[in-house]
Design the sequence.
């Protein structure tokens, strides 16, 4: 596989790195999450696990209340993924490596696979944001077109109407076939080497983790709860649809909007071979609703997607302060800083681009 290399250190990159380092030092702050991120653990895990145990132990038996609790579990899933698992798998949750390791397993508790996530997100998405055939976040099922470099199909002109449904299936896909297919693909592309793990060990762990997840989320409820299989299926689907929709509508408006750039390997190699990695991130990323502290808290600071992409090893608890530095340095060097004042506006712009890409 041919990869792009963003190696140039320009004036923007140097000044930005220096000022952010100065900010951390002058305020005596470590780049990790500290106690502020630890406060999220009991709350967000309670959103996910408390409804589960209330239903398992028969405290809640009303069918409609159980459906509501399934939706709450979906919000808990999304919150854990955004505000805990994400930092942990970037190594920025805690200064202690073992704490990051333990918290990274929250992905398995949600039914996913941390190894695949680190390769797709840390290695590919962060290195090659919005680059055709390298960034898997913009390469999805063929009936969805997220990049102008993807081939156009007739059905794409309707994607603005049906895309949201497939967003809701995102975590369901992880739970079933995607993790296995990804692991096999990453073996063929020799990407497992970046995680220092063999394919056999990775596949063994994946099978065990999936088995334990389905025992907890399917077998136990069916054995101890007074529900039919189809009632369980509706609850399971509701939980994942809520989670998948929330995750998709956080990440999609951060990269797949009209303001962001898309490129191919050849575009970069021929037209802009010396572009720095930092400027590439500025061109391909967007922020939204940075004024809302409650929203920022729940989504793990990922509405500050620009700051996250520039400093993925710094915990999201620092992004609101760092964003002021990034915005100032970007303006000084005439580098774009893409921002939508509201989350709703960012989603609307994302849908605008889907409509445009569908009619191309």
Sequence:
């Amino acid at each position: 596989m041919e990869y792009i290399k963003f190696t140039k250190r320009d004036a923007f990159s140097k000044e930005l790195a220096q000022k952010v380092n100065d900010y951390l030092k002058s305020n005596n702050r470590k780049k990790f999450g500290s106690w502020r991120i630890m406060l999220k653990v009991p709350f967000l895990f309670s959103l996910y696990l408390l409804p589960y145990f209330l239903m398992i132990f028969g405290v809640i038996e009303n069918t409609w209340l159980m459906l509501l609790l399934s939706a709450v579990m979906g919000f808990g899933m999304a919150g854990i993924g955004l505000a805990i698992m994400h930092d942990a798998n970037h190594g920025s949750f805690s200064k202690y490596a073992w704490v990051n390791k333990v918290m990274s397993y929250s992905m398995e508790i949600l039914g996913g696979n941390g190894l695949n996530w680190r390769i797709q997100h840390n290695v590919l998405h962060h290195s090659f944001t919005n680059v055709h055939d390298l960034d898997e976040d913009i390469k999805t099922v063929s009936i969805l077109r997220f990049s102008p470099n993807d081939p156009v199909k007739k059905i794409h002109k309707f994607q603005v109407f049906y895309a949201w449904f497939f967003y809701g299936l995102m975590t369901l896909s992880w739970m079933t076939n995607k993790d296995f297919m990804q692991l096999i693909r990453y073996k063929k592309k020799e990407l497992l080497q970046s995680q220092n793990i063999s394919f056999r060990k990775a596949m063994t762990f994946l099978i065990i983790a999936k088995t334990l997840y389905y025992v907890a989320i399917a077998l136990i409820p069916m054995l101890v709860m007074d529900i039919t299989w189809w009632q369980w299926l509706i609850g399971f689907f509701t939980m994942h649809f809520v989670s998948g929709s929330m995750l998709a509508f956080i990440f999609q408006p951060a990269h797949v909007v009209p303001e962001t750039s898309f490129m191919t390997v050849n575009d970069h190699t021929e037209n802009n071979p010396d572009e720095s990695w930092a400027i590439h991130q500025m061109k391909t990323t967007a922020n939204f609703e940075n004024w809302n502290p409650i929203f920022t808290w729940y989504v793990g600071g990922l509405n500050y997607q620009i700051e996250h992409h520039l400093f993925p090893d710094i915990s999201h608890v620092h992004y609101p302060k760092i964003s002021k530095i990034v915005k100032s340095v970007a303006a000084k060097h005439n580098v774009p800083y893409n921002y939508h004042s509201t989350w709703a506006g960012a989603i609307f712009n994302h849908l605008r681009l889907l409509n445009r890409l569908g009619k191309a």
